[in-house]
Amino acid sequence: MQTPLIILQELNELIKRVDKTQYDDLVDLLKQDRRFFFFGEGRSGLMAKAAAMRLMHCGKTVYVIGETTTPSMGQEDILLIISGSGSSIQLDGLCKIAHELGAEVAMLTADASKLQEHRCKYGFAIPAATKKRREWEPATIQPLGNQFDQAAHLLLDAAIIDGPYSEDSMGSLTKRHTNLE
Fold it and tell me: Is 42 left (phi over 0), alpha (psi -120 to 50) or beta?
């Protein structure tokens, strides 16, 4: 039963190292009345879908890239990416397209240099271990990108609670929750 406590300790130390200003900027972004397009690959994609769902519960217009009902993106829209590495062929292409369309890019990544590379106006670096295990990543008992994905999930949930949820109510969220299950 020691493993869960070690994981929680790792996450606690990691989240203390996230830039507060960047976090606060993301909270403010999530409060805005804009359309949000989420993207991530693999487990990071699952974290993106979880955050998109929670933001939808708060009454925001939200889409997940790759779903058949996702409309075209345009000016004033937000592309919100979750990616430990901050780079892939698909991610790089989506950032380029978003900028060409006049949308803004936000990213949660373990590699702070990717925020500048992709001209992200919002987002932050999560100083977590990824599957790449670069020399600057922290030690962890967890495999692959578990630590990054857990931290991304926790930080996005917190940003939504600090942001649009703070302006909403539990009753409103419950009304927007699916009733088809």
Answer: left
150 CB burial (10 A radius; 0-12, 13-18, 19+): buried
- Residue ranges, the chain, pLDDT below 50: none
| Domain of residue 23, CATH code | 3.40.50.10490
Residue 77: helix, strand or coil by DSSP?
coil
Q: What is the tens place of the pLDDT at every residue in 26-61?
A: 999 999 999 999 999 999 999 999 999 999 999 999
Phi then psi for residue 122, to 5 deg, are -130, 165
Tokens of 76: 């004033």
